Amino acid sequence: MSWVLPTIHHKLSWLWFLPALFADSNVNYPLIVWSQRRKAGKPFELKTDLGLIAGQILAIFLWSLPQRSVVDNLFEKNLGPMLVVLGFAYMVHFAAQLIFKFENLRKYGFLIKLIGPLASYGLNYWRDGHRDETIYGLYAMINYDLLFMSQGIVDTIYSEELQCSFDYFSKTSVMPFMFVLWGINASVFSPLAYHDENFLFFYPLYNPTWMQSLYTSGSFY
Length: 221
Hints:
Helices cover 66% and strands 0% of the residues. It is mostly helical and 221 residues long. The protein has one domain. Helix 4 (74-96) packs parallel to helix 6 (135-157).
């Protein structure tokens, strides 16, 4: 196994996303069930819901096991801290859904869409942009995929609530500023830089943390 893992990404070609999707789906399963239960208005059940939280922690732990195979202590330096950031992002996703239970807070539901981008900055902080041509690059990229999928799960399940939140603010003086922010997003967060790039097929594309953060922000919106 130790001699296969360092070169396995060279053998997967475009099929690499099949095992990645399998890992993403399994790690995100507790969040899916939790979100569906909160959406359906089911009461908090100690056994079931604490089991989902424990299952989410266990899923991240199991996903950490293959990442410990990387060389040069990169798990301790980079991948491990990235998983801690991911775990914190999941816990915020679990808790933030309670905002839709309070009538006077539902209009601020759009803030839940900020969890993914903000968490990506934490991943970028620990991501070594100069280590792409290794199994490290593949594991790091899947960590980003987990973050994207988790945000997509919550956004999809709560699409109606999010639309109501957007509709509320579209009738206020905030709307002009939203257009300005949209323009800034289109111009600043587009991957237009052609320097400090790394291997094209490993995410994120750039080496410096600040360029990675611009790139990951644009990936969400």
